[in-house]
Amino acid sequence: MNRLNHNTLGVLQEESTAELPFTEPHFCRQLCIAGEKHGIPVIVFHAGWIDWESRTVKAYTYSKKAWKYQHFPLPKLIYNRLSRSHHERADQQHLRNSLQRLYRDDVEWLSRPLPGKWNLYRTLSRFDFLKTYLPNTYPYHGPRSLLRIIKQHNGSVFLKPSGGQHGRSVLHLEAPAYAASSPWSHASITISGRTKHNDHIHTPFTTMMDALKWIHQFIDGRQYVTQPYLTLLSQQEEPYDVRVLMQKDGSGHWQITGSAARVGSAGHLTSNLRGGGRAEPVESYLEQQFSRKQAENMLSSIAHVSKQIPAAIESCYGRLVELGLDFGIDQKGRIWLLEVNSRPGRSVFSLTGNEKAIRLAVENPILYARNVMVRHLRRVCP
Q1: d(CA 349, CA 364)
Q2: pLDDT tens per residue, range 6-37
Q3: Closest CA relative to residue 24, chosen from 34, 32, 14, 33
Q4: First and final CA of the chain: distance in angstroms?
Q5: What DSSP string runs through 282-329?
Q6: Which helix (H) or strand (E) holds 12?
Q7: What's the CA gap between 318 and 112, in Å, rounded?
Q8: Assessment of whether the complete model's pTM goes beyond 0.90
Q9: Which ranges of the chain does DSSP label H, i.e. alpha helix?
Q10: Can you tell me the distance from the alpha carbon of 2 to that of 176, in angstroms, rounded to the nearest whole number?
């Protein structure tokens, strides 16, 4: 049996029907260029392209301003850029088998998908340093249990898919507090949010039972979590959050690569860039919302907790190379940890013009991969 290639970083991507048949082609090109700069060959592939008999894979690499497609030995070290939902919807038997074999085989993972929001919440809530940052979170078990949660939180709750959807398929139910106690009574109830195609939803209902039935049909058997609705709006009534990118550097230490404010449009529910949001330099943006001293204290608190989160998560789920952390700040200045993503995007730094963060966001995975490869060689060489 052929040995694995110890000198190449493999980037595991989802298959695409675009001209380049894999997702994130721009980021993959940047990785290949950074790899060439630092002496680490980078190849991009999909799990279904592996030939297990020969332990080879058809893959793409970018060199001399062009993509090349050829056979490579299967890499020992893999940077997993698959979403958790991709693992769940891998309905082709050969693809499922290939992913399972990758996890059983002696490859090493630079990163891996995290579990869904409910399981991740249960893990994070075990850490004392995080308890004040986490909104109460409940799994969706149907209309009856949702009604209890709505009543518990005075008629205002937020529902989101357990698997990351870039702000798609989220819902906010707003109702008078009495409507949960009298679900058949007439009341002014509104559900707003986004469809799975990122279209806006704003639907009125006259009874709580009608709203609950609509939500149940909308969820359609998918895994969802419910949280109390947090008013995370700017003074201009725009939803916003703070994205922090944590990455391991070339020494294997966790560092803050950069941070930015993501700002949505007034009247919308989320601040995600794919949903039409914009990015702002975080320091100046928070100073517009609060005083300079308050902004400094908030950013210090966010940095402090951000530096503790990666080690806590790795202690439960294994090695990671990066995490995207999303923090909300309510109008009283309280900080909430909204999302933890092991497959973070990087576009916020391009939009804010943070050149250092743009460079490090791409180079850090390459530099850490080199660190892992060198440590492996030390183990196998006398």
Answers
A1: 15
A2: 899 999 999 999 999 999 999 999 999 999 99
A3: 14
A4: 24
A5: HHHHHHHHS-HHHHHHHHHHHHHHHHHHHHHHHHHH---SEEEEEEEE
A6: strand 5-12
A7: 8
A8: yes
A9: 25-37, 84-88, 93-104, 117-124, 143-152, 178-181, 208-219, 282-289, 292-317, 347-352, 355-380
A10: 66
